């Protein structure tokens, strides 16, 4: 075991993993995290805490993870390279490990221009692939970037993200290979709606032999309304929402129920794809629906390892 | 070259309105090409400032002048006596020129009339684009001649990120994704395989993050010193 985290045990044990996203509050209340943690605890194997997602200031991922950890939940600390230089990154990793955090997801982060402090200075000292490499080096060689020794163990399970449908698509699998070569243990993808396209992409992943080297968790976003479906189709880069899904949401009598149905159909197809080892549910502002989806998808009970 | 853009007129007016003798001082190199701070722009701006002064009913003598370059001492020599007759200089040179003149002019304030923007080119008349960040450690041989430091919004070394959208950057549909351009270019050059290697962490200390930079060419300095010795 590299980290001994629950997520690692589930994936290495060959189970189909379920992770869920927890957005921290724009405030100081631990209760917001605790409520979400309590709600999702028995429905997933680990919970991602986002890191100032869309460049909007929120409670730090590290503290959100600690709150979950105290509840006996296995947190995945998301870390973007937008806001920290290599000194802060390594320092936060040492602190996170000391506080019992074992899973770290490496991202570049949405550009600061999107957030609520668009006049800030982005850091981008290292990129997300270099972050994966840095964490692997910290864990396996017990060394900082500068080459100096780290005292103590750095047990980490290292994650990276992948946006399969961002262009140029033919290069995406190669870039995934770079992340795997850098040391990623698991991958969480951007939300998948166009399963047929994703199946083709996974063929390319298997052709490169990447499915044997890394655990890929496919992203799932339950759609709450037709407006949300249209918004994602038109505005979120790297998300491909087929017209059929938009039409179904438009014609649905109860939009939320249709959204759940669509998510369940997608999950069912994802489970059948060779090389997909789990799903990552990002129910943005709709966390309450996650237990329903996990239960109806037949993914209960979650393994206790 | 260095691309600049004239500051908003109101900002300039606020800078000069309390002075009596103002020199609008242009530079005829980079900032003249981008129509921000050459002799012509200095003349136009001086005349606008005179008009404004007369509208406001204040007496300000606004003169204008320009020299070829504000970044080397010899270009100043013929005009410095004239420059010193002003009680403030509104420099239309880049920031380099403002600094350089400030250190040489004595007690006269030198204010910036333009914002120095970036190192760029002129793909078409009236369009200026940033192409270099002056990072002090050029990697263009690794990226098909397209700079990810200057042209990727996140300065990624192993791009593109997930924000690429039809070849455009996530920050704006008006901005090309540098990594999209890099990959297309490398494909054409037949060296796409290079991109599959992980590029290492950068040494940013060669750029502005390592503190102010200085380059000394010993051989040139030595020749100058010899010339001086000969002369004396």
What do these coordinates show?
- The complex is a heterodimer of chains A (305) and B (232).
- Chain A contains eleven helices and eight strands.
- Chain A is of the alpha/beta class and 305 residues long.
- Chain A is globular and about 60 Å long.
- Chain B has a four-stranded parallel sheet, with helices on both faces. A three-stranded antiparallel sheet of chain B has the order 1-6-7.
- Chain B is an alpha/beta fold and 232 residues long.
- Chain B is globular and about 65 Å long.
- The model of chain B has no long low-confidence stretch (mean pLDDT 95).
- Classes of the chains: A alpha/beta (305), B alpha/beta (232).
- The interface between A and B is medium-sized, with 35 and 28 residues.
The CATH architecture of the largest domain in chain B comes to 3-Layer(aba) Sandwich
> What is the 3D form of chain A?
globular
Number of helices of chain A: 11
The radius of gyration of chain B is: 22 Å
- Give the strand line-up of the largest sheet of chain A: 1-2-3-4-5-6-7-8
In angstroms, what is the radius of gyration of chain A?
A: 18 Å
Supply the CATH superfamily name of the largest domain in chain B. Response regulator
Which pair of protein chains has the largest interface, and what are the residue counts? A-B, 35 and 28 residues
Structural class of chain A: alpha/beta
Q: How many DSSP-defined strands of chain A? A: 8
How does the major sheet of chain A shape up? Answer: 8 strands, parallel, barrel
Uncertain residue ranges of chain B: none
- The CATH topology of the largest domain in chain B: Rossmann fold
Which structural class should the secondary elements of chain B be placed in?
alpha/beta
Q: Taking strands numbered 1, 2, ... along the chain, how are they ordered across the largest sheet of chain B?
A: 3-2-4-5
């Amino acid at each position: 075991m590299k980290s001994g985290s629950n997520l690692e045990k589930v994936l290495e044990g060959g189970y189909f993993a379920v992770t869920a996203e927890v957005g921290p509050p724009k405030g100081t209340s631990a209760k917001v995290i605790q409520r979400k943690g309590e709600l999702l605890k028995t429905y997933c194997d680990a919970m991602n805490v986002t890191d100032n997602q869309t460049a909007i200031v929120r409670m730090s991922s590290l503290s959100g993870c600690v709150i979950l950890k105290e509840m006996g939940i296995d947190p995945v600390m998301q870390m973007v390279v937008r806001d920290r230089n290599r000194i802060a990154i390594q320092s936060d990793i040492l602190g996170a490990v000391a506080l019992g955090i074992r899973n770290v997801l490496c991202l570049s982060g949405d550009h600061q221009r999107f957030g609520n402090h668009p006049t800030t200075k982005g850091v981008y000292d290292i990129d997300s692939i270099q972050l994966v490499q840095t964490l692997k080096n910290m864990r396996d060689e017990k060394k900082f970037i500068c080459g100096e020794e780290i005292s103590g163990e750095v047990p980490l399970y290292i994650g990276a993200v992948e946006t399969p449908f961002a262009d140029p698509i033919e290069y995406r699998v190669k870039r995934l290979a770079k992340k795997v070569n850098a040391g990623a243990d698991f991958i969480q993808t951007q939300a998948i709606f166009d399963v047929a396209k994703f199946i083709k992409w996974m063929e390319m992943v298997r052709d490169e032999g990447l499915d044997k080297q890394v655990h890929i968790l496919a992203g799932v976003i339950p759609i709450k309304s037709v407006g949300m479906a249209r918004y994602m189709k038109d505005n979120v880069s790297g998300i491909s929402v087929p017209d059929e899904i938009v039409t179904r949401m438009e014609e649905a009598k109860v939009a939320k129920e249709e959204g759940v149905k669509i998510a369940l159909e997608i999950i069912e197809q994802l489970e059948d794809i060779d090389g997909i080892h789990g799903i990552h549910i990002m129910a943005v502002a709709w966390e309450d629906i996650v237990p329903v989806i996990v239960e109806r998808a037949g993914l209960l009970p979650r393994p206790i390892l | 070259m260095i691309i600049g853009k004239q500051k908003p007129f109101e900002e300039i007016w606020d800078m000069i309105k309390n002075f009596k003798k103002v020199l609008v001082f242009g530079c005829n190199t980079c900032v003249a090409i981008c129509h921000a701070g050459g002799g012509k722009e200095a003349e136009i701006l001086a005349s606008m400032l005179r008009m404004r002064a007369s509208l406001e009913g204040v007496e300000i003598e606004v003169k204008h002048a320009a020299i070829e370059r504000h970044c080397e001492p010899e270009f100043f020599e013929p005009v410095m006596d004239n420059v010193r007759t002003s009680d403030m200089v509104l420099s239309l040179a880049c920031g380099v020129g403002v600094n350089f003149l400030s250190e040489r002019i004595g007690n006269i304030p030198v204010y910036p009339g333009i914002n120095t923007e970036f190192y760029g080119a002129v793909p078409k008349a009236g369009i200026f684009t940033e192409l270099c960040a002056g990072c002090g450690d050029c990697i263009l041989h690794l990226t098909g001649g397209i700079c990810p430091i200057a042209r990727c919004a996140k300065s990624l070394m192993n791009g593109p990120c997930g924000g690429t959208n039809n070849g455009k950057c996530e920050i704006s549909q008006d901005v090309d994704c540098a990594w999209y351009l890099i990959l297309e270019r490398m494909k054409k050059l037949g060296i796409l395989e290079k991109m599959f290697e992980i590029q290492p962490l950068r040494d940013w200390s060669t750029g502005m993050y390592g503190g102010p930079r200085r380059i000394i060419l010993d051989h040139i300095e030595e020749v100058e010193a010899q010339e001086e010795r000969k002369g004396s």
